[in-house]
Amino acid sequence: MLLDQITKANDIKKISPKDLKPLAAEIRQFLIESISKTGGHLGSNLGAVELTMALHLELDFPEDKLIWDVGHQSYTHKLLTGRKDGFAELRKYGGLSGFPKRKESDSDCFETGHSSTSISAGLGLVKARDLRGESHTVISVIGDGSLTGGMAYEALNNAAHLETNFIIILNDNNMSISENVGGVSKYLNSIRTADAYLDIKEGVYNNLMNVPKYGDKMVRGIQRTKKAFKQLVIPGMFFEDMGIRYMGTVDGHDIAKMVRLIRESRRINQAVLIHVMTQKGKGFSPAERHPARFHGAEPFDIETGLPTMQRVANYTDVFSTVMVKLASRDERVVAITAAMPDGTGLKRFRNMYPDRFFDVGIAEEHAVTFAAGLAAGGLVPIVAIYSSFLQRSYDQILHDVCIQNLPVVFAIDRAGLVGSDGETHQGIFDLSFLSSIPNMHIMAPKNKWELSDMLKFAVGFGAPVAIRYPRGEAYSGLAEYRKPISLGRAEVIYEEADICLIAVGSMVKEAEVIRKAIKEAGYCCSLINARFVKPIDEELILKASQVHKLLVTMEENVSSGGFGEKVLRLLTDIEAGVKLLSIAIPDDYVEHGNVEILKKEIGIDNETIIAEILRLAGAELKK
């Protein structure tokens, strides 16, 4: 195999030009076979194979610097820098990351996971290069979906003033995770048809040159007005007018053309944007037909493209169903997503209520302030965003929603540990950063029925509300416990003595298992479903502190600023004599890997929790 000849960075330069096309085919086949077993980001990587090869043919690693926006299209880059053998453990604990990772390779110069950051990072690397008197090339690759994020334009505006080389490659496949929307998408579509200008130019010049006597003079006249003509006809002049040299469009699957264009761009002492056209999912027909499905794929059957694992109903499905019901009952209900109608479960809502559905592109900050405007206008907006992406809109939540106490509902999907995507995607900070904001109210459901009840409560509440729920199967246990939702009130599930477990959201399911083990060890054990993280049920917690020797808080959030800290503060203020054990994620970033393995590594798995509770219980109950 040609791919076996690449064991380290820059080995691709030893491959004969006639073998580059077969190498691209080998890379695609390798990616399809590997990701069919491990899962991962398939469509974006299949589309960027030749683009990555061209970059590696022209650049020298690790001297030159390459930044991948979001980073989920970096698999070919990993292969071409000698990490092929690591793909068997892709996205597994201790294995190869699905994103660029500096500690994994010195050819990964910057870690990415969220959208629209690569141009800013690249610009920083350019300035660092120049200040240090170095001469290497810096290239930022950004997708057309990421170009809908406002941060990208802040960086472009800054890059336009450069008088030194900086290359930006726009990888345009007309997709982000779902199909792109908005003005940027329309603008790029117009660039894709800009070949019409070139045809017009060539036809006009040829015809005029054939005009006797005056033809040459007419051509020179047109050449004097060429720039104005280009501004009128070529959409790419938007970048030119900013001060960024625009080059393109170029076929992103033509290696020779891209190498030539990259080489030319390296000689230009200003910011250059190369517009590359690629096909998401190229070379695998199921991914070509269903690019959104193969953005982040579970293990699948190569022949059919269908998942090999049986799908179970998850919390996103529950949210999807409830949203449609809420909209049918209340015309004020509207839904907002940041380029993820499928991932957040809003596809059905969009199909049934298109006028009340808003996809704002990869622009979480805008999504939140837009929602604030909708709420100020008398509507009830529900903003569905993954926990890790909600971090990007902290200021807008504080400044535009909560200061005005507007009735915006935040449906926070993928809260807690999400596993294989790693540090950039773990949803383990939302309880902490949202709790710091006055007027914010935070809930977490114990099961699928409670998610439904909390959404209904939030829509009628009239103030900012956040509901966080995890990735994965929707828990259907404890269905008999369904007391009405009341602001700041927890729910007692089992009431005994000795030990009291106070669990938040997804940890209620774990608390059931833990309680059973504690009782088998001979202790009495109560279980409280916290329901609210802000405000907490102070009355019930104080009561529990009076009748138990040990309180145990359980949450899938970092300890700093989390639920356990709130309970500790309350108990400290009243000088309660009860012992408190806070089970939470350590204040650190959590690697990629299977969620159960990660829980064990950070000490919040059931076995570790049970052992710690029994150790403390033995000491406390003997007093």
Sheet having the most strands: 7 strands, mixed
Strand content: 15-25%
What is the terminal-to-terminal distance? 70 Å
Question: Number of helix segments?
Answer: 25
Shape: globular
Helix content: 40-55%
Taking pLDDT < 50 over at least 5 consecutive residues as the criterion, the unreliable ranges are: 191-202, 224-233
Average pLDDT level: 91
- Radius of gyration, Cα only, in angstroms? 28 Å
Give the strand line-up of the largest sheet. 7-6-8-9-11-10-15
Strand segment tally: 17
- What's the assembly state of these chains? single chain
Structural class: alpha/beta
Descriptive terms for the model:
623 residues, alpha/beta, 7-stranded mixed sheet, 5-stranded parallel sheet, 17 strands, 15% strand
Summarize the structure.
It is built from 25 helices and 17 strands. It has 623 residues and is an alpha/beta fold.
Description:
- With 623 residues, the chain is of the alpha/beta class.
- The chain is 41% helix and 15% strand.
- It has 25 helices and 17 strands.
- A 7-stranded mixed beta sheet has the order 7-6-8-9-11-10-15, with helices on both faces.
- Helix 5 (118-131) packs parallel to helix 6 (150-159) and helix 14 packs parallel to helix 20 (448-459).
- It is globular.
- The N and C termini lie far apart (70 Å).
- 49% of the residues are buried.
- Mean pLDDT is 91; it is low at 191-202 and 224-233.
